[in-house]
User: What shape does this take?
Amino acid sequence: MRRITSPATLRTLLLRCISSSAADQSYHLPCSQLSLSKTHFFTSPLPPYDPFSFSQYSTSFRPFSSQPAARDQEETTALSISSELVKELDAESLSIPQSLDLSFSHINLTPSLILSTLNLSPDAGRTVLGFFKWVKSKESFNLDDEVVSYFVDYFGRRKDFKAAQDVLSDGIGLTGRKTLESMVERLVRAGRTTQTVAFFENMEKDYGLVRDLDSLKLVVSRLCEHGFASYAEKMVKSLASEFFPDEYICDMLIRGWCIDGKLDEAQRLAGEMYRGGFEIGTSAYNAILDCVCKLCRKKDPFRLQSEAENVLLEMEEKGVPRDVETFNVLITNLCKIRKTEDALNLFYRVGEWGCNPDETTFLTLIRSLYQAARVGEGDEMIDRMKSAGFGVALDKKAYYEFLKILCGIERMDHAMSVFAKMKEDGCKPGLKSYDVLMGKLVAHNRVDKANALYKEAESNGLAVEPKAYMVHPRYAKKKPTTGKKEKKRETLPEKMARKRTKLKKIRLSFVKKPRKMARRAF
Assistant: This one.
């Protein structure tokens, strides 16, 4: 006889089974899986803590951390939306907003979820416009300037500025500083300088973006940073009656000409500004100094110190003080022409001008000392950097550069000691660090050490793959030769003695013997 169960009872039993299985899975999860879980860049915010909530005192089983579970759930949702965007549309299929509303109407949108979806959909193309319309139509989500900038940045990466302008048109009243930065940055990086200037002219009436001195500074700085100083200067001069330039804009224009390598134009503009009553700041002179050093490195490295001294004398005449960036420019360029000793002497004299070295100064000198095979002094500079309070700058990237230099100069023992120091400082090595060390160790025929590093990288959760490294012939073990004995190489005195003997034999073979005179009989 069958027992009939009501739907409500079945639903309750099903929910109990699901909750108990989820609790068992979360309780019995191995610690190794927790420690090796994937790391994501975008995390959703945790819910606010409520001390009077019953869930805080519940005795049911919970995962060790709810944050990784939330990240995994967000990544799964982003992948699902991305697959919907990338999917090919037929004539009979629904539009993107309708299909997304049909499949994902239950999810709670967050800025991190939207950014993850865009990053996972590089080939979606203009279907992202439908995604933007769907996001805008969600009443539960507050569309703001930051989220609009994500969509502008996405289309800017694809150089689809027509679609980016459509996003700006639909987002009138929501856009602000971040959207302006994304649009200008993408236009300049794509080389659309004329379009950038035209966008600034019409952005207030077309897209509702504020057109003021701060936005002009933003456009000028982006143009100058990418070497388009001529367009920036024309733009500033044409708008001088509306937005009078200040010292920041003047310094940026000089820096832009220096980035472009036009030293004459930079000096011409500096002279015009000085005659016009503007004071040229330290940042502008640092850009001129860097440009002079680069041109000397390219044409005549022996003139670098004398030409740099002329710029420093001009700074003293104009009353412009030196800062740590001035010394960083000099030390960096001296190290690039392998004048490490002069760079060290300048480093010890930094305090005479009331400046203190920063992390850039220390890292540049450490790399140069290692490159010059002065490994002991390089280690001392690392200790000095830590004692100066810049140990935070010794990150994974900095240590990787040190290891790469030491492996390049064939100092493997010291590279391994720096690698051990890296781990002692709490800096977790990355895949590149292991790869460069394993490759060089195998080249030096130290396969056991390379295998130990491989196992260590695997235990740290890095996705290392077995590779075929070649052993250098100089370090390969020679097979013992049995049978014919190889001829021993002659020394220089033996070779010279053999040549003298041979030349003497040749000379004697050409001596004419005297003929015997026949006696005449009388």
